[in-house]
Amino acid sequence: MTWTEAQSYCRANYRDLASVRNMAENQKIQDLVPAGGKAWIGLSRDSWKFWSAGQPDNYGYNKACVVARFNSFGRWGDVPCGRKYPFICYSPLPKQELKLFKLKVKKSSSADLDDPAVLENMLLTIKQKLKGLDENIQVNWKKQPDGKVFYKEKKTKEEEKTKDEL
């Protein structure tokens, strides 16, 4: 695609053409493009970036778009916008959501719910049940101020009445 087509595609389907702000991001783009290849990129407002020697030169006054050249150590060059190159889009990382779930456990055995091995085993069981829903799910215990994960729930007045009636 041309630079303009690539930009339109990225803006419609992602966020924009990838803009490079630092050496790490330039390296990430370089890792995505086969050796010796070129790819359209967007620019940020910073002017110091990764230009190849003598670039930008706007030779012939028709070179207004930027291509990352990966045969010259990931340096940039200005080229006519109508040329066709692969391109790299970016989209921001999805926001992570923190969800808190309360787990009620009926203690029917003599298992010590404060034992790290028991807690780890329970956590593994929960992770197994959630497996396949989303690869980015992380499950951890939230400890109470006293350092414990579980606490004995206080009985409601209705539960006390029911117990007294029996």
From TrEMBL:
Key word Disulfide bond present: yes
Keyword Disulfide bond annotated: yes
C-type lectin domain residues: 1-90
Domain of life of the source: Eukaryota
PROSITE patterns assigned: C_TYPE_LECTIN_1, C_TYPE_LECTIN_2
Keyword terms, alphabetized: Disulfide bond
InterPro entries: C-type_lectin-like, C-type_lectin-like/link_sf, C-type_lectin_CS, CTDL_fold
Alphabetical list of SMART domains matching this protein: CLECT
UniProt-recorded name of the protein: L-selectin-like
